[in-house]
Amino acid sequence: MTAAGKHQVSRSTGRRLARAGIRDVAAAAGVSITTVSDALNGKGRLPDATRRHVREVADRLGYRPSAAARTLRTGKSGLIGLTVTTYGEEPFTFTEFAYFADMVRAATSAALARGYALVILPAPARHSAYDVWANVALDGTVVIDPADHDPVVTELVRQGIPVVSDGRPGATLPVTAWVDNDHEAAVTGLLDHLAESGARRIGLLTGTSTDTYTRLSTTAYLTWCERVGQPPVYETYPAHDPCAGAVAADRLLARPDRPDAVYGLFDPNGTDLLAAARRYGLRVPEDLLLVCCSESSVYAATEPPITTLSLKPGRIGTAVVQLLIDAIEGVGGAGRPVQQVMPTELIVRASSQRRPPRTTISPPRRGPGSAG
């Protein structure tokens, strides 16, 4: 190939390939531009066969609607937001935690599957964060674990932006829908598991925030203690503070009424409690049974492996996005907020199963007349 030829190839391969437009789809499908628009947007009175044919042609040509054109046509940006407001104005890098990372991955996939992009918004650590949000044209927002009387949710709704919460909101929060776990049943089940494993005084590490996860889980623990006649033994700390959990775990195991089992509500509590137990010379699970709520795979490899409660954030992430897009697109009727309750799973490992005492079995003695 000549130098000129090579130059021509490099120029042609360096250019972006022209993206198929709606006119190209209409020409290839043998229909009008209006028919293509109606078929791809679920509008008009078209035969199902025509809709399928147009979509197949659009897929074959790699046609994607222009975001700018969609905004002009529908008044929607195709952007949905996601943020955590649990800790108010306290800074919190939520994507560092396994629960939120799993949820965001699932939410992103669910949004893309319906033609939307997910925008991760900063937690409102300062009032300037609201200015950042105002510069993003959002069709709707997912808010994770909103606190009672959450001002962010109230302001978003005031602006006419639909809000779906991951977490059962307070009665006064005007969300469109919410998805949550049955925290009362989950906590009661794991406390019963610890009691069945031999625990006689179960402690709790919990938070100081007012979100429903913390409040309902703590209330379930106190209710269980009252039912079984055990005085509650718990320590609280601000969960957004990465150092406070270790201090609270130490306080709990230093108490004169030290528990012989502990449930930690938050992701780092398992390693915090394991480290505190070692400082006090407590063996897990012989002296102390442990369970924490986490999605992290690290707990399968600790020594011993730690039992975890999974809240199934992937399922929740998919569900909140589906509900939000339904609200944006007017699917379903108005009225009371849609409510979905997701199951949890207790992943039982060695830390919550007290080992039975080791028994040595000696071989039977041979009598004097036994054959050798």
Description:
The protein is elongated and about 80 Å long. 38% of the residues are buried. The strands form two sheets. It has a six-stranded parallel sheet with strand order 2-1-3-4-5-11, sandwiched between helices. It has a six-stranded mixed sheet with strand order 7-6-8-9-10-12, with helices on both faces. It is of the alpha/beta class and 372 residues long. It is 41% helix and 15% strand. It has 13 helices and twelve strands. It has helices at 3-14, 22-29, 33-41, 48-61, 67-74, 98-113, 128-134, 151-158, 183-196, 212-228, 244-254, 269-279, 313-328, and strands spanning 79-84, 117-120, 140-144, 163-166, 177-181, 202-207, 233-237, 261-264, 289-293, 307-310, 338-342, 345-347. Helix 8 links the parallel strand 3 and strand 4 (163-166). Helix 2 (22-29) packs across helix 3 and helix 6 (98-113) packs parallel to helix 13 (313-328).
Determine the fraction of residues in helical runs and give it as a percent range. Answer: 40-55%
Report low-confidence residues grouped into runs of 5 or more.
1-17
Mean pLDDT over all positions: 83
State the strand order across the main sheet: 2-1-3-4-5-11
User: Per the principal axes of the C-alpha atoms, what is the gross shape?
Assistant: elongated
The largest sheet is:
6 strands, parallel
Report Rg: 28 Å
Order of helices and strands: HHHHHEHEHEHEEHEHEHEHEEHEE
How large a portion of the residues is in β-strands, by DSSP E?
15-25%
Roughly how many Å apart are the termini? 92 Å
